[in-house]
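Protocol step 4 of 6.
Sequence for Beta-glucuronidase (Daphnia magna) entered exactly as in the expression construct, tag removed. Do not edit the line below.
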Amino acid sequence: MHWRIFFATVICVNGIHASGILYPRPSESRETLTLDGIWKFAIANRTEQNKGFKDKWYAAPLHHNVEVIDMPVPSSYNDITQDANIRDHIGWAWYQRDFFLPKSWKSQQVSIRFGSVNYYAVVWINGVEVTNHSGGYLPFEVKITEHLKFGHLNWITVAVNNTLTPWTIPQGKIVYHNDSQRYPAGYYEQQYNFDFFNFAGIHRPVILSATPKTYIDDITINTTSVTDSLGVIFYSVELGGSKIAAYSVIAEIYDAQHRLVAQAKGLKGEISINNPNLWWPRGMNESVGYLYTLKIQLWNDAKNVEGDIYRLPFGVRFIEWNSTGVYINGKSVYFKGFGRHEDAILRGRGLDLVTLTKDYNLMRWIEANSFRTSHYPYSEELMDLADQQGFLVIDEVPAVGLDNFDDELLEAHMQTLKELVQRDKNRPAVVMWSIGNEPQSQKQVSAHYFDTIVKLVHRLDSSRPVTLVLNKPSSQDVAAQFLDVICINRYFGWYSDTGHSELITYQMIKEVTAWHEKHLKPVVVTEYGAGALAGLHTDPPVVWTEDYQVVLMEQNFKAFDQLREMGYLIGEMIWNFADFATPQEYFRPTGCMKGVFTRERQPKFAAHFLRRRYAQLT
Ligand code: GCB
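Step 5 output, structure tokens:
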């Protein structure tokens, strides 16, 4: 058997998101209906992975074909039951539920949008396949009007497959064990090159939305210049539907008090805002995270009636970068923050508004100003709060630990980046695109690969710098030459010279200096840290204690202070914000314990120590 068997029935549709993926927001012309809630659920048997397709599980109520259990959406399915087979499942899982539609939607165009499904998804409405998507952390949407029934029950079925291959982003492989002394015939496992648990399922909201038949498909907004007295933005609008020619476009800008401050007409153009309230990140100005609203309205001139309306929050802020730093509205930025995960107890990677809100409270308490979406795009609900609360975000795609660089992988990687930029291009909080984490960037073939990727991202969005998070020695790496900002992960005193905290300051200074001298680019240390079991103490400190975690931080801080003075270290992000789930390993006691908070979001001693530092860093 070959790994491809697992998703033989999926045809990967590239370019599915050439059109817009605006978040479904109700307006005078738009309505939404959530399909979140309890769905019926079953996993496919390990030895009969394609049975659901063969027996058409999507064509009838799921319980007619297979024993079902209840499954909350959104959530990962892994930690919901007592069953280790469900936790560790590899391959197809099936979800199904029913719904009714309001009559008023009959004359509208109806779409369904998934915030994210990890990794492959196939979707059927009333037994008809309507779309499929690959890539676990980004939204996809499809129009389903013609497949819906009004006045009758509708059925939606989703088949989800979490198998990772050498050509998925991130990569993984199915390994068959042929040693019959140790493994029964046909035994296989999923392996992957990253340490976070590969949670699976319908992870983010499922939303039905109704829009007029001629509709606003996409909006792009960019700040082109700012001074204290004038902010200039450029907007453009894409329309969809058959009667586009009948409509004109009105663009209006409202301030946070809902006062109209500027307007324009047409599909695209420049709008000037007098005395703008700029969008500032935390700690750089008294005004933090100021958002305007761009209201786009269609108008049917012949009939003199209004058409579709969409309101998009946006910030007026301008990014520049050079060999010494990144600048927002002309001021240089120092990132003080975290590498993180979307990882909630029981929900796994599923959207959890409680954990999400608590995490922002903790990040504000500790006086951080930034985070990286390590190692995949985070939910739109989470990103909204970054915009509102003025956090700087390094927005990363799930290209973690790449270790071969062929054209098929390049294609999938580029598709992920297109979808990420499409989703997050209008967010003021996003100040840098990260094209991946810790690739084998010492391999010569990766040079052409990353050159191609960086050029693509610059083409998609020239307004933000591009980075890649590196962990190979600067003398061997071939990717940094293409980047605007260099990000590095270094675990001195942990993965190397374990326990030798006396070497950390020396090694970190040498390391960052070497990168800067080779490339003359600003550097962010995006990961450093030590595992610590909450409550474990020794003196003198040894690894795994809270005490050693703090000593390691202290030694790194000494290096950061000196490097910052040298003028090219532009940020420090500790690994990790909170402890998180990993696959089972004898060196990871239930997870990665490098959090400054526990997985329950309680502070380790490190959190208090970090808070003192972040409070004094400006
Ligand atoms: C890394 C990875 C991160 C891991 C971390 C660790 O370099 O980027 O995903 O969790 O090390 O703790 O091993």
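Step 6, annotate. The radius of gyration is 25 Å.
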